[in-house]
Amino acid sequence: MSAASSVRPAAHGPSAWALTLAAWGVALLFLILPLLSLFHEALRQGVRAAAATLRDPDALSAIRLSALVVAIVVPVNAACGLFAAYALTRFDFPGRAALLVLIELPLSISPVVAGLVWVLLFGAEGWFGPALAAHGVRITFALPGILLATLFVTFPFVTRTVMPAMEAQGRDQEEAAAILGAGFLSVLLRVTLPEVGAAAVSGTLLCTARALGEFGAVSVVSGHIPGQTETVPLHIETLYNGYETVAAFSLAALLAVVSGLVVGARGLLEWQGQRRRRDDALV
Amino acid sequence: MLSFDTRGPAAVPARRDLRGDGAVGEAADAAAAAAGVSLHGVSCVFGRTPAVRDIDLTVANGEFMALVGPSGAGKTTLLRIIAGLQPGYEGSLAIGPRDVTDVPARARNIGFVFQNYALFRHMTVAANVAFGLKVRPRATRPDRHAIAARVAELLELVQVAPLAKRYPAQLSGGQRQRVALARALATEPALLLLDEPFGALDPLVRKEIRTWLRALHDRLGLTSIMVTHDQAEALEVADRIAVLRDGRLEQVGTPSELEDHPATPFVHQFLGETVRFDGVHEHGRLRLDPPWSAVPLLGQPPAMGEGRVSLSLRPYEVALRPTAEPGAARIVDVQRAGAFHRVRVAPTGDGRDAIEVLAPSSEPPPRPGTTCGLDLSRARSFGGDRETAGRRIAVGW
Q1: Which residue among A138, A270, B334, B355 sits deepest, i.e. has the most Cβ atoms within 10 Å of its Cβ?
Q2: All domains of chain A, ordered by start, with CATH?
């Protein structure tokens, strides 16, 4: 029995069954079937052929670049997101409401626009581009641009998942810790963060999944140079456009598996959280 | 009821035990010093509204002080100022001999029990209690075994030892309250602050914990300040009570001082049910305002200022004497209420503007429909020329 069943009533009657069937039908048609076809395409010429395409230098370079982007973007955004959530829930300051809206901006703005912004700022013809180029700094069509674009697009995830948890936590526990003699850092590490830990991990995993899959913004700033500035999603597109179906689908399958693991980890985390809450309620 | 009395040597005051092993130098010294609290000219403003205005208050070493007042009176703000949780106040504040006006909360060494206990949800009961010791700088931190021993001792003290491994979510309200108290006492504070400590408990548990807390206060030699909106609670537990109203200190005194000599009608009314009369006192003669002006007065308070006065009495202090004089008040109805008869009496025949007074049930109750006069000789009087110099009469009364 899942934890949810102790909160929600179990489905009863024909209408409930119809609803259940419909829900599963939609999931099968729009989520599971495409995934299955993806794996089917990737493995059509056998596992060996699929694996061989992943060893292609350009594919390896794309995988390395994606891993690097995630390794840099996720920790940075986790730290910044936690800080932003802390500041926004704990302090009232001028412009707080505006900042709340700004943090959501990357969710509502098209990633292509987000990419274009960086090109406008740092491109060869951009505001700061020439000045930076004069000092030998290259942002667009290079790793820094890809990082900036990904950072921008994935910024809201940690903040938005952590904020409700921090809001719910309130200030009491932090004040109690301070009175007991804990300094700012001690309060943060021993009280604030552990309390919102699950939310923070969940947000970080969402951020990871998004950073892995980001296409639009990165596509604009990276310049699509195979073997140099192509992340996995970009390389998949290049392969696909070049009619290298097996290679494209193999790489896509790999990406899907990794993203699936990330999302699965998040689901597991939530399930455990629910179970713990239920256990607490039982005693 | 107080089971620690029966536990023998284990029940010696906890703070002495820890001081004995020399693990906590500085805190122990602080605890040894005088631990009263004194506030001078403390004011605190939220935006434009003053939450607390110009408070002078001294709490003696070892005293149990209750801060009472209606909601919004500023009592919690005052408690938070003392704790160091409310930045941006004016005035000065000393704990014992030490001026702590500019000392942050974490360096004040105060025990604080929050209204909702504010236990750390992700820590066990034992970890909650150990927190204050674990976060100490390495130099003054007791070693692991000393902390464990201290935690066990404290949990024993607050009678929740078997719950050490539980999480706060698994405890009842009364148990959380005790754990919160143990956590607050872990750092051996000389001063204990309690914000509505019984508010979230059901009435039966409340009474028990109240008695127990007071006994603990005495046994550990603490100085305690408790915020409550429940005057009965304050009267039962506290040595002295500070009555706050609109951010000002209305009066400070022992329960009997406040009862016998309330500074304002508000204090008298806040500490219990009151019946109130207004009138004019001239040349030794008191005339009540309408609708009571025609009712025969068969007794008035002995010492009263001249001019406009207010009289405030407990319902059982109003004496009704049968009289047939013209204008006499009329008994509307009588109900038995425990040790008293609850008597409704009206100034005129039609029963309007009736007041409720209590007459001891040991005496035969007045019969409804009969007439009577008022004996107000047990009233506290406010106002009058003699009084106005030193006392404020609240507007709106």
Answers
A1: B355
A2: 46-282 (1.10.3720.10)
